[in-house]
């Protein structure tokens, strides 16, 4: 019987991963036959092609190599993840290992110090990470060990579609706006977004706009009480955002489009542009369970990852909104020096290891937070994602630097502006009131 060479390579790779994890020192106390139980709260899009490898080569590989640790893992995605995590925190029932954000999306865990500072656990391993990945987070300490560096804004471009219509990749907003009539005549939308959930516009588009038109210094001054959201730089950013709808660049249908529905729309050529985070790349790559891809590898060279074209009046140029990535944290309720603490750290080490980061690089799920993580198995679109980081700078993601009490009204206000229900000035005033209420509550 002949074995498929790809399968053989896969088995060998899996065996090497299991062998590596097994080299770690067992955590169960000497003479104890009782395994350590860890509850894990994980963020996972089960519809993504990356999900299969994540489960098989990350989670199950760890379990096979660590029979002395039993994982009770709960996977959630999108807003339900955040809502349930807040409920866990309010009830004082946080899982032992938690997927979390470096800032506002996980502000409760940071500011109430519900998770441990991981800096003392790192030791010499710290040198293996990019410096930006280990910067203090929202609570002033390293609450989670990032699995990635994340650009929350990417302009995905179907260059093949543009070429077929005789249109160039735009470098300025004026050039993008000028394309609207031709795209409409061809029955196409201009920019797609899956913005039914209210976080999408703020995180993947508006944060970039504020970074370009106001700059991080302005946000720093607002947080220091030296400027206000009602000042011209922020209002100007809101006005430009409104102009995207007035100019036909964005359609109000984005608010009726679910986050995952947009994947198929873009892959099928509904529009030449998609705005989303860099993680969206993984949805277009080959699904290992089916061998199929929304964008087949032989067509991926037709797609480019870039940033929104130059905006009139911008003070910062060619930037995306960027943060140290999400990662895994350890509950502060785990006793210091305990077998459970050693087990939790062992899991976090594995989840941020070069081997696991290589898997996430190959699936497009995350760009590595560790240095020198590469792969020769990248599909063309994953290679394009790696090149993207060589071409752009980064500014704040607003829901990373603002508390949920502040960015929540902004998220809603951005939807209201897009739907014609609020003006930029009204939303700016609402966000400023929310900031003042948050300050008063601290």
Write down how many β-strands occur, each being a DSSP E stretch of 2 or more residues.
15
CATH superfamily of the largest domain: Periplasmic binding protein-like II
Return the CATH architecture of the largest domain.
3-Layer(aba) Sandwich
Radius of gyration, CA atoms, in whole angstroms? 22 Å
The SS-based structural class is: alpha/beta
The general outline is globular
As a percent range, the share of helical residues equals 40-55%
Count of domain modules: 2
Span from first to last CA? 69 Å
- List the total number of helices: 18
Strand order of the largest sheet: 2-1-3-13-4
Q: Catalogue the unreliable spans.
A: 1-25
Fraction of residues in β-strands? 5-15%
The major beta sheet can be summarized as: 5 strands, mixed
Q: What is the class of the largest domain in the CATH system?
A: Alpha Beta
pLDDT averaged residue by residue: 92
CATH third-level topology of the largest domain: D-Maltodextrin-Binding Protein, domain 2
Pfam families: SBP_bac_8
Protein name: Extracellular solute-binding protein
InterPro entries: Bact_solute-bd_prot1, SBP
């Amino acid at each position: 019987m002949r074995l498929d060479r790809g399968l053989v390579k896969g088995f060998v790779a899996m065996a090497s991963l299991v062998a590596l994890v097994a080299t770690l020192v067992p955590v169960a106390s000497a003479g104890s036959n009782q395994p350590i139980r860890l509850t894990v709260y994980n963020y996972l899009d089960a519809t993504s092609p990356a999900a299969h490898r994540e489960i098989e080569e990350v989670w199950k590989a760890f379990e096979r190599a660590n029979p002395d640790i039993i994982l009770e893992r709960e996977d959630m995605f999108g807003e339900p993840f955040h809502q349930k995590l807040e409920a866990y925190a309010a009830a004082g029932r946080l899982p032992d290992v938690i997927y979390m954000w470096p800032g506002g999306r996980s502000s409760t865990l940071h500011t109430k110090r519900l998770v441990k500072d991981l800096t003392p656990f790192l030791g010499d391993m710290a040198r293996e990470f990019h410096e930006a990945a280990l910067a203090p987070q929202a609570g002033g300490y390293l609450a989670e060990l990032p699995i990635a560096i994340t650009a929350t804004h990417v302009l995905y471009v179907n260059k093949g579609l543009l070429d077929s219509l005789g249109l160039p990749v735009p470098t300025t907003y004026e050039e993008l706006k000028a394309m609207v009539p031709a795209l409409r005549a061809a029955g196409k939308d201009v920019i797609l977004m899956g913005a039914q959930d209210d976080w999408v516009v703020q995180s993947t588009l508006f944060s970039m706009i504020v970074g370009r038109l106001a700059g991080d210094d302005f946000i720093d001054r607002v947080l220091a009480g030296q400027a206000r959201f009602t000042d011209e730089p922020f209002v100007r950013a809101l006005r430009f955002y409104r102009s995207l709808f007035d100019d036909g660049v964005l359609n109000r249908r984005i608010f009726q489009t679910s986050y995952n529905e947009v994947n198929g729309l873009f892959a099928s050529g509904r529009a030449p542009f998609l705005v989303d985070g860099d993680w969206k790349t993984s949805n277009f790559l080959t699904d290992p369970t089916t061998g199929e891809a929304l964008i087949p590898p032989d067509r991926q060279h037709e797609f480019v990852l870039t940033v929104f074209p130059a905006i009139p009046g911008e003070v910062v140029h060619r930037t995306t909104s960027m943060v140290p990535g999400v990662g895994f944290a350890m509950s502060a309720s785990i006793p210091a020096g305990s077998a459970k603490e050693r087990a939790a750290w062992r899991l976090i080490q594995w989840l941020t290891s070069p081997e696991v980061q290589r898997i996430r690089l190959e699936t497009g799920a995350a760009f590595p937070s560790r240095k020198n993580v590469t792969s020769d198995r990248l599909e063309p679109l994953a290679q394009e994602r790696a090149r993207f980081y060589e071409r752009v700078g980064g500014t704040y993601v607003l829901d990373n630097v603002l508390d949920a009490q502040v960015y929540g009204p902004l998220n809603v206000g951005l939807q209201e502006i897009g739907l014609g229900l609020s003006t930029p000035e009204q939303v700016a005033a609402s966000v400023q009131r929310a900031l003042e209420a948050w300050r008063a509550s601290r």
